[in-house]
Design brief:
Largest sheet of chain A: 5 strands, mixed
Number of helices of chain A: 2
Distance between the termini of chain A: 31 Å
Structural class of chain B: alpha+beta
Structural class of chain A: alpha+beta
Shape of chain B: globular
Mean pLDDT of chain B: 94
Helix content of chain A: 10-25%
Largest sheet of chain B: 4 strands, mixed
Radius of gyration of chain B: 18 Å
Low-confidence stretches of chain A: none
Oligomer: heterodimer
Strand order of the largest sheet of chain B: 9-8-7-10
């Protein structure tokens, strides 16, 4: 299993931590959105393509946009979803 | 520019401010504001800071003289908040802040928007200035060591700043904000609701005479995002921004009143990202 962290203001009840299954990073994010449809518009455009201005941090390492497709999230890892503007 | 005497102050918000926010009719959770605590002692040396954000006309002169191409122009898109949320929109840039078919011509006295952190640093260097640190920004907004919620004092007045509430009336829930923005977009599209710099002077100015420090545009600072105290319990996405993003101050025309306070902090991705609500002002050493 992996941990997925999101901004508190994105979730309907302020929850920030979720669990997911390990695997390729794009699949992890898409599965998470499928499981939690309220977040889909934050992560994917109307055409279904990932919104690249949303940053992804895996185990404290920011995954560059060009490397996202090849990134794999291992068991026990944490994926943090980070908007281009955070806080306040 | 206005001169700011150096001084020592308690940067950040005391605990009563978070209590106030939690008890207020605003929709954001307490943890969202935790990064502005605890207050801590900071000393700033004397400096100068722009009286208002850099305008479209000032940035146009910079672009014309240097040939500077902004990150948004280079990439061919910028971020605009649509009815569906933040979206990368082709053709959006400081010259066309709402996208193709829009123009900043005629908005010379408005703050420039769609400028990335690098664009702002480039402008500042060209102008013989620099971005303010967040400490300098907060000290200038408060007008010295005295704590105050907004540049003019502790009492909110919608007539003092360009916030979402200036446009929409009192807002106390995300749903109300969304309804206002959807109606606005339906009327004439997702164009920025900036106002001419200084439009809220003098009643909205800080004691040092700085205008538009609450609202109008978010303002980039030079400060690398960090927590005032590593032990602060904060939103996980805010924590993830630390050491990566740059501090943004002042809130914008998009925000609720409480997001435009002097000690309010936001954190922006400095790797080329910009939006139709982001601008900046400059500072320089005295």
């Amino acid at each position: 299993m992996i941990r997925i962290l999101i901004p508190s203001v994105w979730s309907p009840d302020g929850r920030t931590a979720y669990e997911g299954a390990e695997g390729p990073l794009p699949d992890v994010v898409r599965r998470f959105a499928d499981d939690h449809p309220w977040i889909k518009g934050r992560l994917f455009g109307p055409d279904g393509a990932p919104l690249l201005h949303v940053n992804l941090v895996v185990d404290d390492e920011l995954v560059p946009r060009r490397k996202r497709d090849a990134a794999v999230v291992g068991a026990g890892s944490t994926v943090t979803i980070l908007a281009p503007m955070a806080g306040g | 520019m206005v001169p700011v005497p150096g001084g020592t102050f308690q940067q950040g918000s005391p605990p009563w401010v978070l209590d106030l926010l939690e008890a207020s009719d605003q929709p954001l959770p307490r943890v969202w504001f935790a990064d502005e605590t605890p207050p801590h002692t900071v000393t700033v040396r004397p400096y100068w800071i722009d009286r208002h954000p850099v305008t479209v006309a000032e940035f146009a002169e910079f672009a014309e003289r240097t040939g500077h191409v902004t990150d948004a122009e280079e990439r061919g898109f910028g971020l605009v908040y649509t009815e569906k949320g933040w979206r990368e929109v082709d053709g959006v840039c400081w010259r066309a802040p709402g996208g193709p078919g829009t123009s900043s011509a005629g908005m010379g006295d408005h703050p420039v928007v769609h400028v990335s952190w690098f664009d702002c640093v480039s402008y500042a260097e060209w102008a013989g200035k620099r971005l303010p640190t967040e400490s300098e920004w907060e000290y200038a907004a408060r007008g010295g060591a005295e704590f105050r919620l907004w540049p003019w004092g502790d009492e909110w007045d919608v007539r003092n700043a360009n916030t979402a509430e200036f446009h929409a009336g009192a807002l106390n829930a995300l749903g109300g904000w969304k309804a206002w923005w959807e109606a606005t977009c339906a009327e004439d599209g997702p164009i920025p609701r900036t106002t001419p710099v200084g439009a809220f002077s003098k009643q909205g100015d800080s004691p040092f005479g700085c205008a538009d420090m609450a609202g109008n545009v978010y303002e980039w600072t030079s400060t690398l995002s960090h927590l005032y105290d590593d032990a602060t319990e904060c939103d996980p996405s805010v924590r993830a921004a630390m050491g990566r993003y740059r501090v943004i101050r002042g809130g914008s025309w998009m925000n609720f009143r409480h997001q435009t306070r002097c000690s309010e902090r936001m954190h922006g991705d400095p790797t080329g990202w910009s939006s139709f609500a982001h601008g900046f002002r400059c500072a320089k050493d005295a």
